[in-house]
């Protein structure tokens, strides 16, 4: 964004942009004249096929300063190529995408697939939703997101991948794409948060601030167990 001094307002604007790219109206499966009435419910239906896996992450492109936007042009092929690689390599934004990471070859035995995933830092998905907004949206080719190698073996791509579209542009972007993914996106940050919280709990940091309001140490332990199970479940995909 070329911001010299980053403020909370700048951070909130990025967050609002990401959320807006998902929750602004899109057409429903009924056709181009019917908008979705329940986007949160549709998100759950499309992306959460199992109660043990409920962590969703967002990626959005393009996202840039207005000055840069004035000199930029985009194609659906280019945007979707970058968005797919952001998915499989777990990149937060377009800059710094690891193009060496590739999906595991189909037909590998499960053990081979797991070791290959770890070696290449491949991000396995349970379900993905791509939201396209802008000009010529019907011409976008999404076959790359239907590759079975992107997904866990217990869900077929026909059930694991969905797309929402609208020809109405988002903000000043002629074409834009958002990805909401139920995948291993959040393993690393969640694991880091749990680790830091464990260390603070073990050193009794701030515990008294909670116990005086009736929260017991057993409540902390139950929460740690719950989150560690979430991390373990996603790590074993």
From TrEMBL:
SUPFAM superfamilies reported for this sequence: Tubulin C-terminal domain-like
InterPro entries, sorted: Tub_FtsZ_C (IPR008280), Tubulin (IPR000217), Tubulin/FtsZ_GTPase_sf (IPR036525)
Keyword match ATP-binding: no
CDD domains: delta_zeta_tubulin-like (cd02189)
Transmembrane segments annotated in the record for this chain: none
MF term (GO), any: GTP binding
Compartments reported by the entry: Cytoplasm
Keyword terms: Cytoplasm, GTP-binding, Microtubule, Nucleotide-binding
Gene Ontology CC annotations of this record: cytoplasm; microtubule
Biological process terms in GO annotation: microtubule-based process
Residues spanning the signal sequence: none
Family: Belongs to the tubulin family.
UniProt protein name: Tubulin delta chain isoform X2
Species assigned in the record: Carlito syrichta (Philippine tarsier)
């Amino acid at each position: 964004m070329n911001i010299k001094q980053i403020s909370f307002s700048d951070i909130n604007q990025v967050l609002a942009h990401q959320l807006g790219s998902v929750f602004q109206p899109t057409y429903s499966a009924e056709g181009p004249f019917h908008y979705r009435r329940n986007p949160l419910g549709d998100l759950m239906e499309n992306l959460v096929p199992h109660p043990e896996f409920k962590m969703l992450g967002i990626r959005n492109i393009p996202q840039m300063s207005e000055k840069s936007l004035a000199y930029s042009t985009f194609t659906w092929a280019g945007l979707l190529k970058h968005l797919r690689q952001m998915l499989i390599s777990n990149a937060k934004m377009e800059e710094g995408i690891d193009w060496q990471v590739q999906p595991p070859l189909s037909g590998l035995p499960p053990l081979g697939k797991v070791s290959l995933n770890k070696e290449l830092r491949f991000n396995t998905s349970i379900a993905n939703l791509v939201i396209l907004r802008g000009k010529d949206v019907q011409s976008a080719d999404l076959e790359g997101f239907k590759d079975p190698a992107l997904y866990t073996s217990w869900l077929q791509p026909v059930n694991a991948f969905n797309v929402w579209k609208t020809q109405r542009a988002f903000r000043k972007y002629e074409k834009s794409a958002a990805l909401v993914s139920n995948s291993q996106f959040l393993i690393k940050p969640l694991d880091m948060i749990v680790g830091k919280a464990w260390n603070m709990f073990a050193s009794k940091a701030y515990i008294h601030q909670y116990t005086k309001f009736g929260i017991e140490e057993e409540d902390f332990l139950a929460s740690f167990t719950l989150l560690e199970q979430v991390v373990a479940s996603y790590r074993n995909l």
